[in-house]
Fold this protein.
Amino acid sequence: MALGGAVTAPPAPAAVLRLSPHVAVAVEGSPWEIEEVEAYAGQWLLFAPAGDSGGVDVASAVARVLATLAAPLQGAVEILGQDPQRLSYAQMQKLRRRLGLVQGWGGLLSNRTLRENVALPALVHGLPGGGEAGAAADRLLAKLGLAPLAEARPYQADRTSAWRARLARALMLDPGWLVLEGIGDWTPGGSAAWSLLEQSVDRGAALAVCLSRPAPAFERWLRGRGGRVVGCRPVAAEVTGEGEVQR
């Protein structure tokens, strides 16, 4: 409480994600612009093409920028209060410890078991509270129905199981910012994977799902949880007075 009995207002919550106006990302060699947006703890976002994507992989391009794996072509992307393009290597590693990326395909080390893949973030960065990586990985695998596949290699797992393993790996460090390429095994009736994601958001994470094509049923589900849809559009080419095409 301030002097004289005045009540000091609590500080405003910090944005988990902040995109400046006119952020553009490279989608298969062409620039796409993302709507300006801010996201806070406990919020859902859906990044999707505002119209027909023409079959290009918008989801992967947007997810890579949101997960600090690629730089935007223009504009500023601030994640957990920091601009990744201004960070040193050591600072970037600290930031990435607080992020979780669930890739749509690939992404698992073929020479390691699913259990080893899931435990990897904890081995690199350490678990919150100093927990043991293998035990934490086993708990997540069990929650996702993957315990029988713990010692399997990625090529021995079906597509859904591999996606769940990538999700388990992303959740290992209880991240504050989660980015998904696609919706994985989501169904309107729910799944063990999406129950874990909902629990993560309830604990204060912000979550972004990136799509390359419309998914009306999922969009309705997300909006029902207070989520916001963020449009992505190809940047139109402009013809200059000299007849040259610019973007």
Observations:
- The CA atoms of residues 86 and 241 lie 37 Å apart.
